[in-house]
Amino acid sequence: MSPASETRNSIIPPVSDRVRHRRRSWRMFKDNFARYFVAIGGVGAIVAILLIFFYLVYVVIPLFGGASMEVARRFAVPGGSETLHLSMDEQTEIGLRYTRDGHVLFFHTVDGSLISDQAIKLPANTSVTSFAAGAPGSEFAAFGLSNGWAIAVKSSYIATFVDGKRTITPRLEQPLGEAPIVVDLNGQALVQLAAQHEGEHTTLAAATQDNRVLLTSFERTQAMLGEDGELTATTREVQRSTEPVTRVLLNPEQRRLYIADRSGQITYVDIRDQSKPRVVHSLHVVESGLQITSLEFLSGGISLLVGLSDGTITQWFPVRDAHGNELLTSIRTFKERNAPINLIAAEYSRKGFIATDAAGYLGLYHSTAHRTLLVEPAATSALKHIAIAPRANALLAEDSNKQIAFWKINNEYPEVSWSSLWDKVWYESYDEPKWLWQSSASTNTFEPKFSFTPLAFGTFKAAFYAILVAVPLSLLGAIYTAQFMSPRMREMVKPTVEIMGAVPTVVLGFLAGLWLAPFIEKYLPGVFTALLLVPGGVLLFAYAWRALPLGLRTRVHDGWYAAVLIPLIIALTWAALAFSPTMELWWFGGDMRLWLADELGIAFDQRNSLIIGIAMGFAVTPTIFTIAEDALFSVPRQLINGSLALGATAWQTLWRVVLLTASPGIFSGVMIGLGRAIGETMIVLMATGNTPVMDFSVFSGMRTLSANIAVEMPEAELASTHYRLLFLAALVLFLVTFLFNTAAETVRQRLRRKYSSL
Asked: Do 522 and 664 fall into the same domain?
């Protein structure tokens, strides 16, 4: 050993075993801590995802629960005489009973005890021969008399609070005055009656004993100083029937009149101009041997529910034909029982209804969902009258033994079924079945349209156009960057593209909606010209570049050729946009959007799929590019050199060796980009028209599942059908993403095993 080494060893003291042990222990502690910390983080992420999944399922499960009914109490019919009609208040605390002798009785639904008994003043020597209830919620009703007169009444409920205790006081009034209304000047008995009252407009429709149908409309003249003037009534004959009229119905808007006779024929009369009633359509709605046993409006007064003698219930409403004529059309059928349907009661605001048959069975149905929710026995014989509560949570049912049963109903989400969510549904006032999403409207009787199909279609459409833009740019850019670009240029390009991925999507959506969409609309011919001109110009430039002298080409070092193309691409794009107005004037008559609509029948929306493809493609490109470029750059160099050494060209090596080896990573990048495109919210929210349409055109917009959740969740009523359906949409999105990721991982592992031997 040299003297210098001896001196150095004498200066540096030897490390003791204790110190080495302490260092080793500290290093093991850090390794174990990092391992367990990463493991806990991974498990925590999985647990968080599972918790999200289970919470979504927890919120969604009630949608698919069935309905239930139970008798809460029974009591004797309060008062005397025959019942004509039953109803109850919104709180289900007070019942209302109209009787044949002209009495109106309010009673407690708890025990049937009478609250008040108010008698209508009937003219001498007359009797009640018919009765009509107005639209659900209007509390309007009318008695038809044996001398051709009618008396209108209206009930109401006044809630007061004293010392925190609520008291509901029923009240009865006669909005058309206490004097009877002359409907038939001939004095024939009114055997059928329909009545509607809304604001200052009141209409009565009556069928007389000699089969005439009369329409009586009321107008109140305006007196001095804005006071109500005299009420005048005008009666017109609508038709004379050869068959006895069994039912007349008047819709709440007082625009449509339906007349049913004993033969099973229904006549539809347009009474929008009540001075000139017009018969629009008349048809038999029953087959030979059957009869109409019940006829009622569905909520809103558009659809007719026809109960038949064989236990079938059919739904009909007017549909316009090719000539614009409204024809009554059979929409859907419910057939659960074989006994005649004797009573139908529609819900006040939903498109559900309750029906009973002659055997005493009671069923709950929903028309839009085409769903039979419940059928169970309610009495040993046919029920006489039923009344559904305004909130559809209770039912009064009177049987032949003069007993009233108060039923509690649990039927929160009848609108949901597989057909209503995914199949075409024939909605009221539409000419054909459609896929539609429309969750709200200005009226309580609106028919909600909860089809997920246009939302799912919009989600995949947006993802398709985004991937159509992003995948070619990302993969071709990744291939060139990883295999052909110089290291110095790669050090600038790759971080720049990765920084693009950090741009908030709300910024991209803002720019796409407020700048890109108007810009493309203005330069539409130039944009499509650029899509053709730029690739073609690059190919021509590449061909011309090969023809240049070698000395000139070698001035550009290997891996820097892409920089030469930048000015060319800018120049070609500028030229296409600069000549856009001229091309639009020459080829499209000055307006390409109008030309598309007139010549090709293609509608143009400013915020369309092209905007989404560009904006979302810009957002997805960095993700796909980064993952694919890393996979391509990580291909072992010896594989590439070995291929080149065996005589393969650079492109043959890329196609036969590099792409196959990197295919698992490339596929992962594409699938992750697709997953992000499917779940993207802000760009599609701000850069599309948010219209849930089924149109694959690049010039039309869309609404996606994620955007729909973001738009409608703030206005959804807590725990409502709409609220839970939005969670169901989130669950569908969650499952779709999970399935895509699972499929992507499966394919990636197979590709990895297949090409791992290269």
From this structure: yes
